[in-house]
Specification:
The N and C termini lie close together (about 10 Å). By secondary structure, the chain is α+β, with helices and mostly antiparallel strands. The chain has four helices and four strands; from the N terminus they run βαββαααβ. The chain is globular, with a radius of gyration of 14 Å.
Length: about 100
């Protein structure tokens, strides 16, 4: 089992386009033995410490294997909507891990 954490930074004013992409991409996760465990939009007043720019959204997902995650990223249906991701996301920070 692998865990994927993403800090997602959305371009100002492109939140609706980002949501369009997420509405397509998130359901596809399950097709590849994955689960979306957490999707959070952190609010400034909840930050205890913040030496870096705050993300628009934080995702935590799990996949049974690295191969499942790679297959998800290569999904043909998801690929049709990558233009929405590119139009709306300024940058992401992806962290891979495992349960200890």
């Amino acid at each position: 089992m692998i865990y994927i954490t993403q800090l997602i930074y959305v371009k100002p004013g492109q939140e609706a386009i980002f949501d369009e992409f997420e509405n397509v991409a998130i359901p596809i996760v399950a097709k590849y033995n994955g689960r979306m465990l957490l999707r959070v939009r952190p609010r400034q007043e909840n930050h205890i410490m913040q030496p870096v720019e705050a993300p628009y959204e934080i995702h935590l997902a799990s996949f049974n294997s690295e191969a499942d995650f790679e297959d998800f990223k290569a999904d043909k249906e998801r690929a049709k909507f990558l233009h929405l991701k590119e139009a709306s996301i300024e940058k992401t920070l992806l962290i891979k891990g495992m349960a200890l």
